[in-house]
């Protein structure tokens, strides 16, 4: 296992380097002047020049690039151009909200999605299967920001069961603020995982060894859960990893609709005002999570499928 | 005792439901009982800082700074002071100007206390505040507003004197009452350094209790304010960028006031939700003007510019905003001194909307089949909606705008590089009559392709000279009324040459729950106002 982790981490180095380079280049190509955003339309050319000089924006691009890489190696994300605070602080404030949202939505997705998928596969072409397929279609078709707004109006505004917005303060309050956003994101996950589990399990159930097990008189529940589901989970684990990444990066719409703090919302704002250090720091964090989640998926793979270990 | 799985699930479900219901009722009760707190939600994502001179501050920050700080003098509540005699004492109890309006002396009120035991305001604090704006080595917000100040010095511990480079009979409006020279505690600033941005020390009716980038700002009444403590003990300033989220927060009663959306239809949709919602709106708010690039063909042709002017119906555009906009005549909003009225203008400068005449002018200019003008505009709701209406109106006159809608930051950056042929520009000028001319029309502010110019996107003063003479004349005139007469002359020149068209003045709007009374009527002013008298009345 440690060998696998080391290899995967080493594999990630060129990926992260490439991402950093792409982000640096993309930001410099993107039109828009951070100095003008910070100082406003009435700023004189002298003030704009002074701002650029103080923030290092007037240095030659190659110098800015190497300085950026050196800072990243030391995990020094620098100072936000607009918020005048360390980028690390800003990310540290917002990241927990995104992580808790992602984890909570994924947990709900797994807890409901996989059993629904199993039920649909086992009861193929019957009512639970039809229900699952219709739910999947709806889950895929409704954009999460729209669903979020609908849930807000129904459960927060009209029924008053949940808070309208914010991230909450303190453990209980944060969970209270997390429920609606997490359920919104989880709906798509349930649809995705349910459908994936159903398809995968149906395929496994049609295999010869399953028929053999049945012929040998192995109980049905054991066939499904021990032999069938375990094999069917391989593509589900891959899908779950991809879904987790999509949730992490795509939570911005939910953060906006529910006015939750979060890394996605912070990054979107940073892009709109061309806050280069904050964007760069945020992308590094995302790159780290991509590597981490891929690593976890690989580890889970080895646990689920003994053939990989071999 | 054993518990079956079914019993466990049922019991767990009941427990969870009970907890959820209990917390729900608890939440609602807390909201209903909290009459000591007023909450306002602004259309920004998070607080940036509360140092009044910090760059990049957003609307929510400005609202907070306005409650936390005082300026030397202040306008009357709920409106701009547009004439020299309309300003009121604040940190300064009195002031006087020299006959040439180049020297202004302020007597500081005794016993004005800074928050959190940072002592009383002295001339040193005032000089410190202004010197930061005058120091060319310091990057501060709105520095250009103070470029006419030559020196700022303490005459004695309670007297400050300003010497100006040129006369300014409205110095109280142009410099002494602006947010970016709110009086700061020198001692606190030097002690806290960068920390002052999140833990500011001012003299205002509220002091900062907490600054949270994720939860917003909590302010508490300052009991020792010289005008008495604020009417409500707590003021919460929250940041909700998304329009739907902000509107839902207001509809649910979670917040008392929200920043409005400056787009057609919003006021009516809010009224449909709740007919008794109060809308506090400033008039003029922002001035929306159309810069015509005089160096581009066919815009260098006066007849084409006249055709554009005749093709745009300002009143119709204003009407689309349903009561939060007013049509402009010249380039200065009609509520401000220096503006011109239609009835005072000769017929040829009144430009009553007339598409047929616009078409005839285009034909005279050599474009009988009409013209196509490439241009771009910001995606921000107010910019885009105004420009789309202009595009539609001009189509009837044979003028086709090849319009692209782009990101707001790119829009401003590209404008600064002289890339736009027709640049709509929204500016929130205080009622200082020379500001529009100096920042949008003077030769010294001409835009440059290398980005080193400023906000004169039409190249007026260079492509068509003459305006700078009038501006200099106005800037050297110490008498306010005579200065206004010169500005009006300049307005007529601009209406003759048409480098810049006034379109509409668009209000800044706050929707307010009727359970809150702010203590006065909002008529005009900047995009923030005092909540010192605000209180729950229901």
Description:
The complex is a heterodimer of chains A (310) and B (538). Chain A has helices at residues 2-29, 34-39, 45-55, 61-73, 87-122, 127-141, 144-158, 171-205, 208-215, 220-250, 252-257, 263-272, 276-304, 306-309. Chain A is mostly helical. In chain A, α5 (87-122) packs antiparallel against α10 (220-250). The longest helix of chain A is centred in the middle third of the chain and has 36 residues, at 87-122. The relative contact order of chain A is 0.15. Chain B is of the alpha+beta class and 538 residues long. Chain B has 15 helices and 21 strands. Chain B has a seven-stranded mixed sheet, with helices on both faces. Chain B is globular. Residues 1-33 of chain B have low confidence and may be disordered. At the A-B interface, α2, α3, α5, α7 and α12 of A face α1, α6 and α12 of B.
Number of DSSP strand runs of chain A = 0
Please work out how many helical segments of chain A DSSP would assign.
14
Give the percentage of residues in beta strands of chain A.
under 5%
Strand content of chain B: 15-25%
Q: Mean pLDDT of chain A, rounded to whole units?
A: 85
Show the largest interface. A-B, 55 and 55 residues
Strand order of the largest sheet of chain B: 8-9-10-1-11-19-12
**Based on CA inertia axes, which overall geometry of chain B fits?**
globular
Number of strands of chain B: 21
Radius of gyration of chain A equals 24 Å
Shape of chain A: globular
Mean pLDDT of chain B: 90
The quaternary organization reads as: heterodimer
Q: What does the main sheet of chain A amount to?
A: none
